[in-house]
Design a protein that fits this description.
By secondary structure, this protein is mainly α. It is built from seven helices and no strands. The longest helix is centred in the N-terminal third of the chain and has 24 residues. It is elongated, with a radius of gyration of 16 Å.
Length: 156
Amino acid sequence: MMRLPLLAAVLATALGPAPFATAQDNVPASVKARHHVMQVNGYAMGILGAMAKGEADYDAAMAASAAKNIHAMAMTDPVSLWTPGTEQGASPDSRAKPEIWSDMEGFKAAFADFEQASAKLAEAAGTDLEAMKAAMGPVGKGCGDCHEKFRGPKNE
């Protein structure tokens, strides 16, 4: 079951009252929101990764929670987060390559693949450590493939 309250809270916090740049720092809210989504994913993958590497004991409830949060973030519609004019170089703090907009169908397909992989992780993570580890591979690959194609280098 997707946790809509978590997704709503992350997006409401990130977006605030308007989906445009804030007067304080000129960073569009959509850029902030996608950074928050990626932070949730990174945090949750860190929990699962620590268990997978043996750095933390496997905890089925914690693994299931982390995986469900990743899946909730994967179910976010990318169109509302990657708004036109927020590519790297045009928008502060953005690393989004222009290919996102020139190949929106490819971008959406990459997001759909991530959603499917995260659904399998959400199903497996709370069952046992080996199932969780097996399901993590496709999620990590999906992240890497998308970042390679659609994320630019770090801003200087």
